[in-house]
Amino acid sequence: MHWVLIAMLVAGLWGGWNWWSSERHVHVPPGIVAAAEPEQRNIDSRVTFDAKGHTFIKRAEFALTARVLRKEIYRVDGGANLAPVDLGLGWGPMSDSRIVDQLEFSQMGRFLFWRPRNPATFPLAPAAITANAAQVHAIPANAAIERTLRYLRPGQVVTLRGFLVDVRGPSGFAWNTSLSRTDTGDGACELMWIESAHAH
Fold first, then answer.
1. Cβ atoms of residues 196 and 145 within 8 Å
2. Strand ranges (DSSP E) for the chain?
3. Secondary structure of 108-137 in the HEC alphabet?
4. Which of 123, 144, 170, 188 has the fewest Cβ atoms nearer than 10 Å?
C-alpha cells in the first residue's frame, strides 16, 4: 500500500507539471496576433529523402506563423513515431482572442474539431474558420524541434518552417498531406516536415 501511495503521488505531480508546462493556456489580449497567411511554394518535381525508416516526398515549401489553438500528443497510434504532435493552428481572425474565446476546440483521431459556444452570436462563417486554421501533423526533423513542439501551450504564437510532405513506408504505409487551406474532412490536414520551430 505504501508504494501504491507513492506511485499515485508521483503520477499526480507529473500530471500537474505536464499541465503547467505544456497544457496551460496562455492569456492572449484581444487582437490578431498572427496576421499573415501561410507561405507555400509547391514543388512540381519529385524530390524525396529518407528519414525515420520512411521515404518522404516533398510537395511544397511551407512556413507559417500562427496561434496554437490546441495541441495533442500521440504515443500509440500508427503515425506516432513520425508525427508525435498534432497542432491546431490559427491565423488572421483565428488568432484573435475575440474570436478564439468564443470557440471550443478538441482533437480526436488526428482531426481538429471546433464548436461555437453560442452559435447564435458567433460572427464567423464556417468557411472563414476553415480558411484561417489548420490541423498540422508535425514531423520534427530532430529532437530539439520535437521538444519545442511538445512544450507549446495553447495561446502561444509559433513560427514553423519546413515542407509539406507525403510519406511512404513499410507494408504499403502511405500518408499524404493537404495542399489547400480550404478543404475539409479526411485528407484535409497538413503533414509537415518541420526543420525550424520558434515559439514567440
1. yes
2. 39-51, 54-73, 85-90, 103-108, 111-116, 133-140, 157-168, 174-175, 190-199
3. ECCEEEEEECCCCCCCCCHHHHHHCEEEEE
4. 170
What is the grid cell recorded at 71?
Answer: 495541441
Cα torsion 13, 17, 19, 24: sign: positive
List the grid coordinates of 139: 514531423
Is 42 in contact with 60 (CB distance < 8 Å)?
Answer: yes
Q: 63-97, pLDDT tens digit by residue?
A: 999 999 999 999 877 788 999 999 999 999 999 99
- The amino acid sitting at 159 is T
Residue 192 near residue 138 (C-beta atoms within 8 A): yes
Residue 86 near residue 67 (C-beta atoms within 8 A)? no
